[in-house]
Design goal:
Blueprint: H1 2-21, H2 23-60, E1 66-69, E2 75-76, H3 77-84, E3 89-95, E4 102-106, E5 112-121, E6 140-143, H4 145-151, E7 158-167, E8 170-183, E9 193-197, H5 198-208, E10 230-231, E11 233-238, H6 243-253, E12 258-259, H7 262-304, H8 306-314, H9 319-322, H10 324-355, H11 371-388, H12 390-397, H13 403-407
Helix pairs in contact: 1-2, 1-10, 2-7, 2-10, 7-11, 7-12, 10-11, 10-12
Pfam families: FtsX (PF02687)
Membrane topology: Multi-pass membrane protein
GO cellular component, one term: plasma membrane protein complex
Length: about 400
């Protein structure tokens, strides 16, 4: 065993010395490997970077998780509780009828907005940032960026809400002082809108329907009917992008008309599949050609050094140990090719990312190769190089010690 290890060490040293002696040939082989591997690394980096960036952008936009209720319906509390218990649901809050969910707003300086859409909200609303305070009770609301800009107000200021109704053939007006708890980012919601608590939204609906609403200081009107509350719509968000299609299909199967941004999600998946197919196609052809080229070069090298290798056999080097000569050289050439390929990749990736830097955040990249993917690529390259050396290994195994004497 010790003798075999000693012989293997000697063969490895000879193989390395031979590579250095024929450095021009070795460099050409390394460049050939780099010429195949570098474009594959860039292509895979583009695939990972583009898909990961698009996925991250979609995940960072809560609107992609939304399942939109298209028509008013009749939803009871029990059904809502079962829906909220669904592991695919991230956020759900019921809403009133569309026509009842509007409000006129006026700022202290006289600026105003008519028919502002009201949307229910609650703790955990994905549209609210970490620093945005969710409105509570009957005296607060949160405004969209456009609505706040039009009114000229910011968080902490107050606005007046105005609601009209006709009761007993008389036009009545309800005025509410509402504190702005937060102004949402422009990117999460467009248009004029306001987010309020569900109790306030229900109270406004009751007011419009002609009921007395003591919590808003309205005594005029019919007494509210008793019974379980039912809702017309729902603000619903899935827990993840992957859960959106399944949750939407489940609701459609129950007869609800809903819509999602599934086309955008499918677009990212299609880009991933297309780039994966393109990568496999190019990688398959490039790797096959590289393996055959390297294998043929190593076989030719063995044939040129046949007498020298036979002499090693004659001095006692085992045939199986000597077979490691081309395999070690293949591994060495592959290591040099990998180093050159990664150097080319990093230069190309930096140039690509700099070109698109203006359209990306600091954490986003167009071309990015993860460390695990880089290690895998290096390992596969070394494995394929050693596999290519099998062509030369078979030639070594056929060498007889006497060949060195006959050629002399």
């Amino acid at each position: 065993m010790r003798d075999a290890v000693r012989q293997l060490r000697s063969v490895a040293e000879l193989a390395c010395r031979d590579l250095l002696h024929e450095w021009r040939v070795s460099l050409c082989l390394a460049l050939a490997i780099a010429a195949v591997l570098a474009p594959l690394l860039v292509l895979f980096g583009l695939k990972s970077g583009i898909v990961d960036t698009l996925t991250a952008q979609m995940k960072s936009d809560p609107r992609n998780l939304e399942i939109v209720w298209r028509l008013n319906g009749s939803l009871d509390r029990d059904w809502l509780e079962r829906l909220r218990a669904n592991p695919r649901v991230g956020f759900a809050v019921p809403s009133t009828r569309t026509l009842a969910a509007t409000l006129d707003l006026a700022a202290a300086d006289g600026k105003g907005l008519e028919d502002v859409d009201l949307m229910p909200t609650d703790a955990g609303d994905p549209l609210f940032g970490v620093e945005d305070a969710v409105p509570q009770g009957l005296g607060e609301l949160a405004l969209t960026h456009e609505a706040a800009d039009k009114l000229g107000v910011s968080a902490g200021m107050s606005v007046e809400g105005v609601v009209y109704r006709n009761l007993h053939q008389q036009r009545q007006v309800l005025r509410l002082s509402l504190r702005v708890s937060a102004v949402l980012a422009e990117s999460v919601h467009s248009g004029w809108g306001a987010f309020v608590s569900l109790p306030l939204l229900e109270a406004l609906e009751h007011y419009r329907d002609g009921y007395a609403v003591p919590e808003l200081g309205v005594a005029d009107g019919a007494s509210p009917t008793s019974g379980a509350s039912r809702y017309a719509r729902l603000r619903l968000y899935a827990r993840s992008l992957e859960a959106v299609p399944g949750l939407a299909e489940s609701l459609r199967a129950q007869g609800y008309d809903v819509s999602t941004r599934s086309k955008d999600i499918e677009l990212v998946k299609n880009i991933d599949h297309a780039l994966s197919f393109l990568f496999r196609l190019i990688a398959g052809g490039g790797i096959a050609g590289c393996v055959l080229s390297l294998g043929a070069s190593l076989w030719a090298s063995v044939e040129r050094k046949r007498r020298d290798l036979a002499l090693l056999r004659l001095v006692g080097i085992r045939n199986t140990v000597l077979a490691g000569f081309p395999a070690i050289q293949a591994a060495g050439v592959a290591a040099a090719g990998i180093a050159l390929a990664f150097a080319a990749y990093f230069a190309a990736a930096e140039a690509i990312n700099r070109t698109f830097r203006a359209d990306l955040s600091r954490e986003e990249f167009v071309c990015r190769l993860l460390p695990n993917d880089g290690v895998t690529a290096a390992f596969l390259t070394e494995s394929l190089a050693v596999l290519a050396a099998l062509i030369a290994v078979t030639a070594v195994l056929r060498i007889e010690p006497g060949e060195s004497l006959r050629e002399n």
